[in-house]
Design a protein that fits this description.
- The chain is mainly alpha-helical.
- Among the domains are: 103 residues; 124 residues, no CATH class; 112 residues, no CATH class.
- Helices cover 62% and strands 5% of the residues.
- The longest helix has 33 residues.
Length: 564
């Protein structure tokens, strides 16, 4: 059991002066959060320098695609918000937009860096803020250090992936919920109102970042609803108008996305069952009649996701120990949830950090979301980064277990061993970081594997595109290889692709009459269109690389500009 915070008077201070016991478990004081946010910015810039020097920023095809979606909002035949459509949710793309207009920022991937580094720093500060309400300061430092020094997270802080942004939103949603309900219980109605509104804004952010956020938002709404229902009538009456606004904010995100899909994709569940949904991708990539291990099997789904979370958080096989420590910390938190201290600090609601666990178990089992890691068959990499959603909960609850060992050591003899345990834990955090970097962290490794065949293919295709006049239209399916357009430095306005339905359909009906050049890849709609309408097309080049479909480049003899 944690010791109670004690307020002591010191003889050398005036009688009316009180000093908060440094051993107290308490909310943060003014300025504490800023220190950790600044430290996160510095760590993020260091990670950026390393990853930029080694060429890691654009390893993931998904990162390239996110940048491409952001680019087409400002650079397309018909630019605007209509271009944010697709299975991926729009907030990351909107946050990239202010920096994507400059071609060099798009080509280098730097347009996403402000979003990712600021998100990483904010999540570091949020973990500290939660840790202070759960444990002593020295152990909150350990939890924050373990989280901040995770090499996978540091890598994600430099790319256009969505994990860093979502983790920041998740952590701060939990912070707002914990602090809001603690204020509600203390009768601090003004603070409770502000935290509830903040939670609503953060839930909107989550809903428009990753689908996990939809479930987190629903659970947070239930937490506030139950807390208000159990409060005194006078408090409930004062909070009800703000709670109604909070409810509208929680519901608005999914409803807007349903409307967007219905209006632009003509199916309000296009993100769930459309051609680019997880379900359809799994059908295309899986062998006929076969499914990945974990499909409709909760046990395998649990195993795959928890093992992924372990290897994402800890080096080698120490993840087993980390997971056991976090589970023990979870048990400790549950054991003391009814104490006055836990109630006043709202500590119980930090359990919201565990919501990604059931979400991903369900997604793997019934949502057509496979996860492959080298430790389990088929011993490859796919979606290994999904385990990162568990990093905040593993960091905080494992530190809670480590603090309990500290309490036990201080009760034992000699006490000097207890004084060494916290510095030793910090050294273990640093060692975990160093070993993971040495062995190449799995999220980075997945990116390297992802890029092995895709990057050379896109660079070869870009070389060919660079030889084409910059202002002539090129017909090409960009859904899989927008990176070639990015490397070539072409504007998306010059491309006839799926991004504009009207010109795309006209191009498929008459490739030679619609574009100066046509690039068809094996199995894509352009190849089918060329086979159906080969008139006026002269084959220029065939590009083939290992592990990628061959691309055939045609020049049109019928396009008006080429006739001159």
């Amino acid at each position: 059991m944690l010791e109670e915070g004690i307020v002591r008077q010191r003889r050398w201070l005036p009688a009316e002066t009180v000093v908060v016991d440094p051993e107290a478990v308490r909310p943060v004081t003014r300025g504490e959060t800023h220190i950790f946010f600044t430290a996160g910015i510095l760590l993020g810039f260091f990670a950026l320098m390393v990853c930029s020097a080694k060429g890691y920023i654009l390893l993931y095809g998904d990162a390239v695609a996110h940048l491409g979606i952001a680019r087409r909002i400002v650079d397309a035949r018909y630019p605007g918000l209509a271009q944010i459509g697709g299975v991926w949710l729009p907030l990351p793309h909107l946050l990239i937009v202010p920096f994507i207009g400059k071609m060099s920022m798009w080509q280098s991937g730097m347009a996403a860096v402000p979003m990712s580094i600021l998100s990483y720093a904010a999540s570091v500060a949020g973990v500290w803020r939660l840790g202070r309400r759960m444990m002593r300061a020295r152990w909150a430092i350990v939890a924050t250090a373990f989280y901040a020094l995770n090499p996978n997270l540091l890598y994600l802080a430099t790319t256009a992936m969505t994990e860093a942004l979502f983790l920041a939103l998740l952590v701060w949603t939990v912070v707002a919920t914990v602090e809001g309900i603690a204020a509600l219980r203390a009768g601090q109605v003004g603070v409770a109102r502000m935290r509830m509104l903040l939670a609503g804004l953060l839930i909107l952010g989550q809903v428009f970042t990753r689908y996990d956020g939809w479930i987190v938002g629903a659970v947070v709404w239930c937490c506030f609803a139950v807390a208000i229902w159990r409060s005194e009538e006078a408090v409930r009456r004062q909070l009800m108008p703000v709670f109604l606004i909070f409810t509208v904010m929680c519901v608005a995100g999914p409803l807007v996305w349903f409307w967007y899909n219905h209006h632009f994709e003509h199916d309000w569940l296009d993100f769930l069952r459309g051609p680019y949904s997880a379900k359809q991708i799994e059908r295309k990539t899986a062998p006929p009649g076969q499914h990945y291990r974990g499909w409709h099997n909760v046990g395998w789904a649990l195993l795959f996701y928890t093992r992924t979370a372990q290897i994402d958080a800890a080096a080698w096989e120490t993840g087993f120990g980390l997971m056991l420590a976090a589970i023990y910390g979870l048990w400790l938190a549950g054991k003391r949830r009814a104490t006055a201290q836990a109630q006043s600090l709202g500590e119980t609601f930090a359990l919201l950090l565990w919501v990604p666990l059931p979400f991903y178990i369900y997604s793997v089992a019934y949502g057509s979301v496979p996860i492959f890691i080298p430790q389990l068959w088929p011993h490859s990499y796919y979606n290994a980064r999904y385990g990162m959603e568990m990093l905040p909960s593993l960091s905080l609850y494992a530190a809670l277990a480590a603090e309990r060992l500290d309490v036990w050591l201080r009760a034992a003899k000699p006490e000097k061993w207890a004084r060494l345990w916290q510095p030793a834990a910090l050294l273990l955090c640093a060692a975990n970081c160093a070993v993971m970097i040495y062995r190449i962290p799995p999220v980075l490794k997945e990116g390297i594997v992802n890029a092995t065949t895709r990057v050379p293919f896109e660079h070869q295709l870009a070389v060919v595109m660079e030889e084409m006049p910059p202002d002539v239209p090129i017909m090409m399916s960009t859904s899989a290889h927008i990176g070639a357009v990015q490397v070539a430095g072409r504007t998306l306005r010059s491309m006839i692709s799926e991004n504009d339905s009207d010109s795309w359909q006209a191009g498929l009906a008459d490739p030679a009459g619609s574009a100066a050049y046509v690039i068809a890849m094996k199995g894509d709609p352009v190849e089918a269109a060329v086979k159906a309408h080969p008139q006026g097309l002269a084959e220029l080049e065939v590009i083939c690389t290992t592990g990628q479909p061959c691309a055939k480049v045609y020049q049109s003899t019928s396009w008006a500009g080429n006739k001159k």
